[in-house]
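Recap slide: IrrE N-terminal-like domain-containing protein, sequence and predicted structure.
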Amino acid sequence: MQGYDPYAHAEALGLRIVYRPIEGASGLWIPEHRTIVLQPGLHRAHERSTLAHEIVHAEFQDHGRVPAQERRADRIAAQRLLAGFDLRRAAALSDDPGVWALEAGVTDHLMEVHLRARASA
């Protein structure tokens, strides 16, 4: 889990991170307060993945839940969090992408996004 640090990135961008219960979501970007709200108690990989995703919304000044913006946030978050991840080494150890995600410290969803992007490249 080295490489991209979404916590340091948020700090460098001047974004505030708070932990509050959120109904129906793991994270939320609140543009008018330059704040990312994270659901308390998330697994470390889920929290990192959610924070990386919400940072992309902050960078693009997204508002609301627009499907194209959600896909973009997932794609960029996956690129950042999985840059340098040795997929060949992980695949040699297991054929389960869930295991790869666990080793990379990301959610299964972001690993799937990453694998789809690689396949279409």
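The mean pLDDT is 95.
The CA atoms of residues 67 and 73 lie 10 Å apart.
(End of recap.)
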